[in-house]
Amino acid sequence: MSEPVDVVLIGGGVMSATLGSLLQQLEPEWSITILEALPRIAQESSNPWNNAGTGHSALCELNYTPEKGGVIDTTQAVKVNEQFQLSRQYWSYLVEQGLLPEPQKFINPVPHLSFVWGADNVDYLRRRYEALKDHPLFPGLEYSEDAAVIRSWAPLLIPGRKKDQPIAATRIVGGSDVDFGALTDELVEGLVARGAELRTERKVTGLKRLKDGTWRVSGRHVVGNTPFELTARFVFVGAGGAALGLLQRSGIREIRGYGGFPISGQFLRTDDPAVVAKHQGKVYGKASVGAPPMSVPHLDTRVVDGQASLLFGPYAGFSPKFLKSGSWTDLFASIRWHNLGTMVAAGLKNLDLVWYLLTELLASRKKQHAVLQQFAPTAKQDDWYRITAGQRVQIMKRGADGKAVIQFGTEVVAGGEGTIAGLLGASPGASTAVPIMLDVLATCFPDRLPGWEPRLKKMIPSYGTKLSDKPKAAAKELKDTAATLGLAV
């Protein structure tokens, strides 16, 4: 067998692309091979029509600011915003170095808004605004209960609404819309130009650690069904929903007890220029009782290939597949003796989620449109059509107390003494690709990290610190990255 590859990245999405980019900056002599099962990269969760592209920074997502004991808890919102700033800083560095040309191809300025109705929700949003308005990572946060003001921010929200209905909205003009598919394409193109190898239509089916500590990565060519095999010193499994099964096949003990439950998603979409022109923003509301965080309803401006569209959703669906291109047996194939109890217990503890999914699956097109009209009362059904978004796999595991839980975020699972790592979970996902991959570096390369830190701080100025602790530094970084990426401050 030939000399081992230094790094094998399984899956051609934004996570693998980000990790490959970071490692190529830190260790330019390392060999990198990307294995993607599909004919093209970024066709699953990184595809722009398989996600909302919000650039999740908790500017408008109300699930990151829950009410606890009558107090608005901003902890998660600040954490997610801090993470997104790391991504923005790294993208800005790559743009400045000419390694990511034309930022408008993958990121565009789009205001982020929260919008609620009903007296209780208005009271909640008012208190959320008070909790965040002076925070250095939420500059320029605006609040209004005036229908005329809200209409000037997002015209589709007001016409047709009852005048006596209590409403409120917040807005930050410094939000963004991110085409993670275009970003992935640009990152991988740069990787290949500087020596990495991209192999598409390569489906990985086996991972085995060898006696010398390297990994044998095996699989088959999708075209022709012929086998392939290579060895790697380090393996990253960034294969979206397929990551769970591959990590299980690797035999690492760290994956024991983990299960996954797939949730599909659908959006209503319109490309009608007359409708699109009436809405400029990403407007998030409050989730239904029992709905997972990724199902928070939102009406979004999307910019893909320079063209603006509107998306509304998501509406939950179900498929046992772990990827849109996956197998109908994915869910059942993921069941092991060590995770069966976890999966059953997590399901029993979350019957409200199960009920939510059932009601969503039974919802008619008319009922789905009625949900859209809660945001845009005058929306016409004929102007919108339904698209299927990407598959998401929720993590099920045992918590610190030993009890089964469903985890709605993302999680890095590493094993083999740091020679293999994989990413499980969903939202906020792609928006926090850079901090997540920094966690991979810290977990898997602790001996190299001290030598890498000066370079990392050059690429990501706030690396190792918290911008929220340094208001002046936060203001400077937000201004600098906005200028480089063509965003509003």
UniProtKB/TrEMBL annotation:
Entry's EC annotation: 1.1.5.4
Catalytic activity reported: (S)-malate + a quinone = a quinol + oxaloacetate
InterPro entries associated with the record: FAD/NAD-bd_sf (IPR036188), MQO (IPR006231)
Biological process per Gene Ontology, one example term: tricarboxylic acid cycle
GO MF entries: (S)-2-hydroxyglutarate dehydrogenase activity; L-malate dehydrogenase (quinone) activity
Keyword terms of this UniProt record: FAD, Flavoprotein, Oxidoreductase, Tricarboxylic acid cycle
Domain of life: Bacteria
Annotated pathway: Carbohydrate metabolism; tricarboxylic acid cycle; oxaloacetate from (S)-malate (quinone route): step 1/1
Top enzyme category: oxidoreductase
Cofactor: FAD
Classification via NCBIfam families: mal_quin_oxido (TIGR01320), PRK05257.1-1 (NF003603), PRK05257.1-4 (NF003605), PRK05257.2-1 (NF003606), PRK05257.3-2 (NF003611), PRK13339.1 (NF009875)
HAMAP family: MQO
Similarity comment: family membership: Belongs to the MQO family.
Protein name: Probable malate:quinone oxidoreductase
Organism for this UniProt entry: Protaetiibacter intestinalis
